[in-house]
Amino acid sequence: MPLRPVKAEVLAVRVIPNVDQHLIKQLNLKPEQRSLGLMTTTIDDVGYTAVDEATKRAEVEVVYARSFYAGAAHASGPLSGEFIGILAGPTPDEVISGLEAARHTIENEAYFEALDSEGAHTLYAHVIARTGSYLSKLAGIAEGEPLAYLIAPPLEAIYGLDAALKAADVELVTFFGPPSETNFGGGLLTGSQSACRAAADAFRATVAEIARAPVAY
């Protein structure tokens, strides 16, 4: 049975057309980075995927991206969610273009999948055909390379990564050891686009199998 998509929600968005000098220093902005775009979302890994997409669609750089501890269920306010991302660019128009690309990804392309009817048990097995500057730097790969972004709860993440690595000619380039800030785990795998997709499929199938029979070994 197909797993049900669990989509993130964009909670708050703002643009700073001309950022203050104190923030320029704190965010280590480049001289040409005069404008900022800020966004919070309900799901952190979708947020990371989205801001990476922004770097491919506009002249922007991800200068700040963080998950919030324990996740959206324990957010500090109604507009916090579990992720904040900040894009920097030379003009407000470029930043807005980046934010729009990020929102499109969140609303239409990147999503978790529910393993149960309540949506309490989820996984993320998203294949990025061509990375932008942000995830490329995080993974230590060249821009434009394929990437499998795999996330699940702690035990499922480790077991699923093992299955994904054995299923295709991929390399684990970033390991998110559990528990992450939001109490998940996983990793970034690179290889050909078809290999990344095969790895993601194996990860999804393995995590789903654990959900069906969690104590059967």
TrEMBL record:
Pfam families in the record: BMC
Keywords for the protein's UniProt record, in alphabetical order: Bacterial microcompartment
Keyword field contains Transmembrane: no
The keyword Ribonucleoprotein is annotated on this UniProt entry: no
InterPro entries for this protein: BMC_CP, BMC_dom, CcmK-like_sf, EutL, EutL_PduB
Domain BMC circularly permuted: residue ranges: 1-111, 113-217
Subcellular location, principal: other
Subcellular location: Bacterial microcompartment
Protein name: Ethanolamine utilization protein EutL
Organism placement in taxonomy: Bacteria, Bacillati, Bacillota, Bacilli, Bacillales
